[in-house]
Predict the structure.
Amino acid sequence: MIVPIIFLILGVVGFLFTGLPLKFLMDEMVIRLARNLVLVLSLIIPVITGMGLNFGIVLGAMAGQIALIIITNYSIGGGLGFLLSIIISTPIAILFGFLVGRVLNKAKGKEMITSMILGFFANGVYQLIFLVFAGSIIPIKNKSLLLSSGVGLKNTVDLAGITYSLDRLIPFGKYPIATLLVTLLLYLSVNYFLKTKLGQNMRAVGQDMHIAEVSGINVDKTRITAIIISTVLAAWGQIIFLQNIGTMNTYGSHEQVGLFAVASLLVGGATVDKASWKEALIGTFLFHFLFIVSPLAGQNLMNNAQIGEYFRVFVAYGVIGLALLLHAWEKDKSKTSLSDI
Amino acid sequence: MKDLMDKIGFPRFIITVFLIGLILLAVFLKIPLPGLITDILVRFGMNAILVLAMVPAVQSGIGLNFNLPLGIVFGLIGALVSIEFKLAGFKGLLVSILIAVPLAAIAGYFYGKMLNKIKGQEMTVGTYIGFSVVSLMCIFWLVAPFKSPELIWAYGGNGLRVTVSLESSIGHILNNLWHFNIGKVVVPTGLLLFFALCAFIVWVYNKSKKGLSMRVAGSNEKFALSNGIDVDRERIIGTIISTVLAAIGIIVYSQAFGFLQLYNAPLYAAMPAVASILIGGASLHKAKIVHVIIGTLLFQSLLVVALPVINIISEGSMSEVIRTIISNGIILYALTRTGGEEA
Amino acid sequence: MDLLQMKNITKLYTENRVLNQVSLSIKEGEIHGLVGENGAGKSTLMNILFGMPVIHSTGGFEGEMLFNGRSFLPKSPEEAMNLGIGMVHQEFMLIPGFTITENIKLNREKTKPTFVSKIFGERLEKLDLNAMAKDARKSLDKLNMSIDEYLPVAGLPVGYMQFIEIAREIDKSKLKLLILDEPTAVLAETEAAQFLDIINKLSEMGISILFISHRLDEIKKITDSITILRDGEVVKTIETSEISIADMAGLMVGRNIEMIRKKKNERNAGDEYILEIKDFKVNMPGERVKGLDLKVRKGEILGLGGLAGQGKIGIANGIMGLYETSGTIIKNGNKLPLNNPREILHSSIAFLSEDRRGVGLLLDDSIEFNIGFSSLEVQNKFLKKIGPLNLIDEKKIREYALKMIEELDIRCTGPKQHTRYLSGGNQQKVCIARALTLEPDLLLISEPTRGIDIGAKKLVLDTLVKLNKKLNMTVIITSSELGELRQVSDRIAIIYNGKVGGILPPDASDEQFGLLMAGESLDKVVN
C-alpha cells in the first residue's frame, strides 16, 4: 500500500504548487481516466496468469492503429467508423496475441524482457510496413494519408472522422459518459471472466505451472489465451484512447502505451504477480494526476516546465524499474534458515 | 549447405547472405565501394568499444548488460567537463576519460551490488534501471551548472543543448590520428588502434588469474563457489569493467560522430551493442572478444551498405527501421532459445 | 478380484534397464506396500501406472497392465485419473495461494452456466463456489478434518497439506486406487498415526491403496501384502503377516556383489582421527543435516550411506561450506572455519560434488582448464608473472594435463576437448584429476559412479582405492549405492534423519544395513 500513498502525497504536494482550480483538475482527470483505463485493464490478465507485465500490449495498440488507418483510408467516420475499427482490430489483435503468446511460451521465466524486446521488434516491422510499403506495395486510396513522395504514411493521421465518436455518443458536455460506461462494462467483464473456469485455470497456471500441468490444465494454451485477451483489450483501448485525442502519431502513439500503462498499474500498488481492477483504477488515477501536475509544478517551483515533463517520464521508468527490482529481490530471499533445523 | 549453416550459426548465416546480397546490389547500382568501406571502418571503430562492454558483463555472469546507459551518462559527463574547461585535442580526450572512468566505476560498483540481490532477473531490471537513469539525467542536463557557450543554448533557454558540437574540442581526434589512404579508402588508424588497445586490455585480463576467476564465476556459479571464489565480488568487478567500458565507449563514439548527444539519445543505446555481440556468436552465457569483432563488423557493415542501397531503391529513413528490426530480432532469437545457448 | 494387474513390466532408459519383468497386482480394497531402496525402480513403476509423459517421451515400456479387468495403457495422467487412479506425490501438488476448496477442486471445478457461457462455451461458465465448498467439506469430513475449507493453503502445517492432498483424491467420485508415495515422510509421529487410521478407513470404503514407504514398521503395521523391489526386479511378493521387518530389510538391500575387497592388513587406517565433526548442521534443501557427530580415521575410506533425503549428501557439501552450516569441524587438531570454501581448500581437503555436471565441471571449457583451474585459483599454480601481471601458464597446464590424462586413462580427443562431450566415467576422472592437483590428504567424493556405465564404475572405484592405498589419502565417499560402499569402504556410516544412524563394517549383514536405513536404532539392529 505504500507505493500509492507516496504517489498520492507527491501528487497532492505538486498540486498545491500548481495553483490550478480543483474543478479543472477533476474534469481533466475524468477525461484522462476514460481514455486510459482500458489500456491499463489489458495488463491484468497476463499478470494473473503468471506472465508478468505484458509489454507486448504495444502489439495490441498497433492492431488498433492498423484498424484506424484502414477506416481512415476508406474515409469512414462517426459511430460507424468507430464500430468498424473495433471490429477490424479484433481479428488482427487475436493474431498478434497468438504470436506473442507463442513466443513467450518459448521464453518461460523471461517473459517480461522478451515481451519488451518483442514490442521493439514489432515496432520495426510496423515502421517497415507503413513507412516503406504503404503507397508502394500496399495501395493507399486516401492520398492525404501519404507523405508528399507518395510512399509511406505521414507522421500524423488526422482522425477527425471518429474524434469523440464514443466520448460524445451520450451527450453530456465534455464528459465522456459513453466511454466511461464502456470502460465499466469491460472492467465488469474481466471481473466476471476471472471467476469462470477459464479464469480459474489462468490463476492456477499463474501460481504454479507444474501443478497446473499435472492437474490436467493445458498450460501453454492457457497462457496464449491470456495474451490474446490482453492484446485484444489493448487494441480496443488504443482506439478509445485515440478517438479522444483526435490525431494519431503514426510512428509514436503506440510506443509509449506499454510504458504508461505498466507504470500506471504499478503506481496503483500492483506487483509483477498480483494485480486487480483496484490497482488499475487507483494507479491510472494517481499516475495521470502526477502527469497533469508535474509540468506545472516544475514551472512554478523551478521556473522550468521541462523539468516536470522529464520528471514524469522518470517516474514512469523509475516506478517500473523499482517494481521489477523489488520483485526480483523478494524472489531472491531464501525461505528456511539454519535455525529452523 | 546445412553443415555450413550449423557451423557458423543460423543468424550469422542469414546476415552474411543478406550482407553479400546488399554488397552485390551496391556494386550493381554503382555505389562507390571505397566510400562504403571507409564508413564501415569508422562505424566499426566507434561502436566496437560499446560492444566490448558486453564481454566482461557476460563473462562475470550478469548476462547482457542492458544497463549500458549507466556508463554512457558518465562518459558524457566526462566529455562535458573537459569542454567546460576549454580543453581540446588529446588533452581533452584524456581528461574526459579520466573524469568518466572513476565515476563509472563507482556507479558500476553500486549497480553490481544491486544485481547481486536479483540474480536471474538482471536483464529485465537492468533495462529499466537504464531507462530510469537516462530520464533522471535529462533533468540533470537541464539544471547542470555548465557555463561554456559551447554547451548551453545560445539564446537563453534552460540547461544544456540537445547536441553539443565537438568541432572545437575533441571531434575526430582519434579518427584523424595517423590516418592514411589505401586508394580511396581512408583508414582511421587512431580509432582502430584505440579499440585494439581496449580489446587487448580485456584480453590480458581474461588471461590473468583475476580474470579467470571472474570468467569461471560467470560460467558456473556453483563450480566457482566450490573452488573458493567469491562469486558476488566477481560479478561486481564484471559490472564495473562493463560500465567503465561503456563510458569510454561513448566518448570514442562521440568524437567520431562529432557531437555529444544528450537527453533521450542514450535511451536505446544498449540494443545495438547487445545485438552486435549476439550476431558475433555470443550467447547469454558466453562472450569473447572475437564475437565483438565479428558481430560489430557484420552489423555495422549491414547498416552502412543498406543505407545508400535502400535510398536508391526506396525513399524514407530505412536504416533506422532496419537497425530496429535486426537488433531486436536477434535479441529475441537469443532469448527464446532454450537455456539461452548460442544465438 | 484384482483391481490392478501389472504384468512383466520392463522399462529401459536408453541402455539402462530400470525395470525388468516386474509384476504386481492389487486386490480391491487392499492396502499393498511397495518397498525398495532409492533407484530400485519404484518411481518408474508409478510413473508408468500414472501415465507420466516422461515414460512415453523415453520410448514407452514393455509389458501389460489390466485395470478392473480391462487392458489399460494411460498416455497421460489425465487418462489415469479418469479411470479412478489418484496419486499423492512426494512433493506437494498444492497451490499455496489457493484456498483448500480451490485446491481440492483444482481443474474439476463445479460451474454453473450463465448467459455469457451459453454464447461462448462452457469454459466461461461461472465457478459455483458454494457447491465446490460443499464437495470439499464432504471429503474433509471423511478424513475427520474440521479445518475451514475457505482457508488458503499457504501457511498450513505440512501435516494438513498431506491430508488435503488425500481429500482431493477422494473427492474424485470414481477413485478406486490411491497411490501414496512416501506419505508419512513429512509427518510428525502423532500425525503419522492419525494418517494410518485414515488409510485404514479408506480401505474399508473399498478404495485400494498402494503404499510406498521406507518406514518398514509402518508397512508392517498397515499393509495386507507387500512387493519388494531391488535393482528393478521383484525379489518378493508376500502377505505382510508372513514376513518380519528384518527379513524385509534384508531383501530390500541384499545384493550379489562380488566382494573384491582387500584383506584388512593391506589397509593403512590408523587409530588417529583426521577429521572430527561435532553437532554439525547443514541447511541444504532436501538433504538437511541436523546435528551430526562423526569421527574419521586417518587413512581410511569411510562410506556414507542412507536413503535419499536423509542428509548424507549434505555432509560433504556442508564441510565444504557450500550451504549454511553450524557446528564444529576439526581437522588434525585445528578447528576449521565454517562456510569458507577457500579455507577448506587450503586445509588440504578436496571435494567432488554429487552433481558432477552442475558443480564439478566447467562443461564448456577444455579438459586441461578443468584439471588445472582449482590449484590455479587456490594455490597459485600454473601462473607466470609478466611484470605486474599474473597470467595463466598454458604450457605448464598442458604438460600437466597430458600427464593426468595418461595416468588416469581419460579417453578424449585431446586436452583441448570440452568436458561436455566426455562420457560420464571420463568426466568423473577429470574431476578426480582436478582434485588430485590440489594434493589433498582428505578427499570428499559424493556419488562417484552416478550416471556412469558398469565397466567405468569399476575403474572409478579402483582409482579411489588406489589413491587411498598409494598416497595414504583419507577418502569419505558418499553414495546411494550401498553395494559400492561395501565394496570399497573400511567403515560405513548410515545417515538417517540428518544424523548418523549407526556405523557398520562393510561385511555386516543385509538386514543390519536395511534396518539402519529404515531408521531403526543400532541396538535393535545388533540384536
Summary: The radius of gyration of chain C is 26 Å. The first strand of chain C starts at residue 2 and ends at 13. Residues 95-175 of chain C form one domain.
